[in-house]
Each structure stands twice: as C-alpha cells, then as structure tokens.
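Take the subject:
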Amino acid sequence: MYYSLFNDNVVKLFFHHDTAPEIIPAGIHQGVKLQGSLRHPEYGMLIGWFSCPTHDCNNEWDKHWIADIRFMEKVILENPHFDAFLNGTLLIKKVLPMYDGRYFIMRMKMGNTGAKANIFYLKVVQEHPVLTLVSQQNIFAFEGMDVFFEAQVKAYPYPWVSLCHILESNKSVIQRTSNVSSQILMKIPSITKANSGVYVLYAENAVGNDTVTVRVYVESIPGRSSSPPS
C-alpha cells in the first residue's frame, strides 16, 4: 500500500493555511476535472490529492489518499476511479453517489515556504428520472418465448423502476426493483397470448418520474394449437 509523501510537518503547515471549500455541482455519472490554483508553480513541486469526509480529513490523510504529483515530473496513482496529470489536475472519471458531500483536497508543498491547499466540496445534483428505451417499442413474439424489456435510466437519487401490464380495468405490476443506477433489463419468461398488450416501464425518485410504453404482440407457433386437445 502506498502512503502519501506529505509528512507531519506539511500537515501542520496545511492547517495553518486552511482555505474555504469551493462547491462543485456535478451530475451523476459525469466526469469532473478539478484544478487548484497554482500561482507560482515550481518544477517538481509536491501536490497531493485526497478524498475526505471532512475538510480536515479527520487527520487520516493516508486513509483517504488518491494521488501524489511532482509537478511536470511524475504521477503516483493507484485508484482506477481517478486520473491525475502532471499539471496537478485530478479527474473524477465517473461521479458516483459515494462522492456526494465529499471534500476533494489538493495540498501543495511550496518549497521551503510552507504549504497551501485548495478544497473542493462535491455536490451531486438531484435529477428526475429520464428513461430511454433500448428494446423495440413494438415487440412481436411467439408463445413460449422469453420477452425482454431493456432501457437506460439517468436519475439521482437512483430510482425505483416498475414494469406494469396495463389491463382493461387496472394495471398489474409484473416486476419492481430499487436503486437502479443505469441499465434496466426485465423479463417475462415463457410468454403466453394472455400476456399480449400494453406494458409501461415506470421510474420514480424523490424528484420526479418518467415512463415509456411498449406494445407486445404474442402469436401462436404455426402448426401448434394454443388450447389443449379435447
């Protein structure tokens, strides 16, 4: 396991030069680049990146370490969810719920003059569900086939998703699942003619909801009767 190159003396200097956090709003699953202020960058200057639950990292810097950068020289990075660059930039490849309310801290050791920090507070933006149908809007199937409903959903917080069969007088919930991050794949096994009709995929979270409608047509297999012999 790698430990940050920052030592205890740098930590003390860091607290002496503490700064207010910059709030960074971000959409779920998007990529975000964080770049601190480098007024007088020095070749080989040490930069450390940390992802912390508090602005002072609860004094557990190594536990929350992401990357060390020697400016324009070398990058040390072990976490596949991030990328870091020689100019000091940190890339969050994909914003996840676990990053909501996290402090991303860039600490810089400025030669013998002390240490500075840039603090970024990441806030994941709440979004109502948006459903995009991947499977066909009209599905044609023979009896006995498995029928799949596939869609993509983008939302935060992650939504509930239901598959409903719309009947003449009511609707029947076929499947329901929670905390859907992106892909939806639901199945009706061994479909029958009674399963023909209109289906609705419904996604909902605390912010709002969205629906997509699919029509399913079921036919008997040619040469096979759908009713038992008398």
Notes: Residues 8-16 form the longest helix (9 residues). The domain at 8-124 is CATH 2.60.40.10 (Immunoglobulin-like). Confidence is low (pLDDT under 50) at residues 8-17.
